[in-house]
Amino acid sequence: MPIHEKSLIRPEDLTEHEKLEIDGVDVSGHWSTFIETRVVSDYNERMEEEIASLPGGEYIHRCWQCSSCTNVCTVNDLNPDFNPRYWIYLARMGFEKELLRDKDLLWQCVSCHKCTHACPRDVVPEGVMKAMATWAELKGHTETSPSAAFDAEFTEQIVATGKIEEGRIIRGFFKRTGQPLRQRWLMEMSLRLAKHLPILMGLKMALATLFRPRTRDWGKSQAAIADYLVEREAANRRALNLD
Prior knowledge:
single chain; about 240 residues; 12 helices; two-stranded antiparallel sheet; mainly alpha; elongated; two-stranded antiparallel ribbon; about 5% strand
């Protein structure tokens, strides 16, 4: 799985000579670009196995580096540094330190699933991105990402009541991430919604916010889901040897 793109080599690992002549041939500038020799001290031989053991990462071993995922990636179109194909390569090679240089980008996957539909090997790159982000978080390399905070708030509400109340999720998410509730975009959206929302639906949403409705006979399902979440968290930690 060789990587040939110059754009993926860190600037500090490249050397160019402004003036260089070899056997009478001027090879100054980019003609004399050299990649610095380095010793890989960050090798993690279990890295692919660790990510594969997390939900979403099961098929990372199928990747053959065709770059279909990156070519159709929504986020890559806006930020070329977001490169799923390259990160999968680093994970499979065990270059942990190299992958962690981009740890703040991993969670930015928007789950549009374009990569999953484009992948000819059914790697499910979207799932691998989530597994990588979870891996980095569980190993203590990153703080809880905004997307993980939203997932936690959403999950807790489902477990507690079996229902989704959007206003409560937004408030809880903002609280977890330290954001003020009064934000211009949210106020604008609320005002526009209020103008077109049917009165009955508006009343139902207001009541749901106040009284927090619960799915009928939710107790058994709640217990089963809670047990599963505990088991899943324990399995994730065991897979990374964190216990």
